[in-house]
């Protein structure tokens, strides 16, 4: 369904070009797949066995660390007992992966907050996922999105906590290292809560196509397409085409029109080329604008179907990768 909804894509928080809603959502999806790949990599690097290192110099009796690897499902040993006792790389890598995950969570949470506002109106969250106000009866606040966004700083802080804690510690064990537990456990707990909240919001959000269309019109989102069409179909140099499209946009703003509602007189005053209705309205059509972005990874409908198929394949591949529980 989201493949057929077109909304503004933004640069500098200004309306830029039309994109399909599916394209926007998939942009978040691919970021989260990289997060999953990072956590899978963290899981692999954490499968390094420290047992057998003793206090810091090794142990006084013969042991088989290889048997321990096999029994405990680790992948390899720490090659140096001092490194094994002092290292917290596996925790740092987990916290770093969580920090990048939360950067992605924060971005989508911010969009939910914005899109849920009256000013945007692109989506509505159900009452079960919002809260009211003790004073203002009309309020419907996206608290889950705000809390998800807010917890990002907390996760960043946990990473900086451990990085700062181990900075300058001499080999090998120091009591400072017991402070790694709270940031680690808190990060895992907070990420679990945030991801459940995000799943609920995206599953139950209702998108409003008409509000998106109004923003596209108000932002003159197909002005670039008009300039491109003047180049491709009228043979005008792009510099001149850019000027014509910009002049029409200025005239529309001044007289209260959108590109799709600009009368022929206004268009003809800018350039006779714009008086060709069949050429003009095809150039500024929102759906056709999206479908012109035919490059691989673009927002054209055939590319969306292609990308969705790749996304499903990627999900299946990631789900097939075995995860080995390890003690962090």
Structural overview:
The radius of gyration is 27 Å and the shape is elongated. It is mainly alpha-helical. The protein has helices spanning 21-45, 65-72, 81-86, 89-115, 143-166, 181-204, 209-218, 223-234, 238-255, 264-270, 277-283, 286-291, 301-320, and strands at 6-11, 14-20, 48-49, 76-77, 123-124, 206-207. α1 (21-45) packs parallel to α13, α5 runs antiparallel to α6 and α8 (223-234) packs across α9 (238-255). The chain folds into two domains: 2-214 and 308-320, Fumarase/aspartase (Central domain) (Fumarase C, Chain A, domain 2); 223-284, Ribonucleotide Reductase Protein R1, domain 1 (Orthogonal Bundle). The chain is built from 13 helices and six strands. The mean pLDDT is 95. The chain has a two-stranded antiparallel ribbon. Strands 3-4 form a two-stranded parallel sheet. 59% of the residues lie in helices and 6% in strands.
In short:
The protein has 328 residues and is mainly alpha-helical.
Keywords:
328 residues, two-stranded antiparallel ribbon, mainly alpha, Ribonucleotide Reductase Protein R1, domain 1, 2 domains, 59% helix, 6 strands, Fumarase C, Chain A, domain 2
């Amino acid at each position: 369904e989201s493949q057929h909804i077109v909304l503004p894509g933004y640069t500098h928080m200004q309306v830029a070009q039309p994109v399909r809603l599916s394209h926007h959502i998939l942009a978040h999806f691919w970021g989260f797949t990289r997060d999953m790949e990072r956590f899978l990599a963290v899981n692999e690097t954490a499968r390094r066995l420290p047992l057998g290192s003793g206090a810091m110099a090794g142990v006084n009796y013969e042991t088989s660390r290889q048997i321990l690897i096999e029994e405990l499902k680790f992948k390899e040993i720490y090659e140096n007992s001092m490194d094994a006792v002092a290292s917290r790389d596996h925790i740092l890598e987990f916290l770093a992966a969580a920090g990048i995950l939360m950067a992605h969570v924060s971005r989508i949470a911010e969009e939910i907050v914005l899109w849920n506002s009256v000013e945007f109106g692109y989506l509505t969250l159900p009452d079960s996922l919002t809260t009211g106000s003790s004073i203002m009866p009309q309020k419907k606040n996206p608290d889950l999105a705000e809390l998800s966004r807010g917890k990002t700083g907390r996760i960043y802080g946990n990473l900086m906590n451990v990085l700062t804690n181990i900075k300058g510690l001499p080999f090998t064990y120091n009591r400072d290292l017991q402070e790694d537990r709270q940031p680690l456990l808190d990060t895992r707990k907070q990420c679990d809560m945030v991801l459940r909240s995000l799943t609920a919001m995206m599953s139950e959000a209702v998108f409003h196509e008409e509000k998106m269309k109004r923003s596209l019109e108000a932002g003159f989102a197909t002005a670039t397409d008009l300039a491109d069409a003047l180049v491709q179909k009228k043979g005008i140099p792009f510099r001149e085409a850019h000027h014509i499209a910009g002049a029409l946009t200025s005239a529309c703003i001044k007289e209260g029109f959108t590109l799709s509602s600009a009368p022929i007189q206004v268009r003809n005053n800018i350039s006779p080329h714009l008086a060709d209705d069949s050429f003009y309205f095809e150039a500024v059509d929102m759906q056709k604008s999206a479908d012109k972005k035919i490059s691989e990874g673009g927002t054209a409908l055939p590319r969306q179907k292609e990308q969705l198929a790749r996304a499903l394949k990627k999900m299946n591949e990631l789900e097939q990768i075995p995860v080995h529980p390890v003690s962090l």
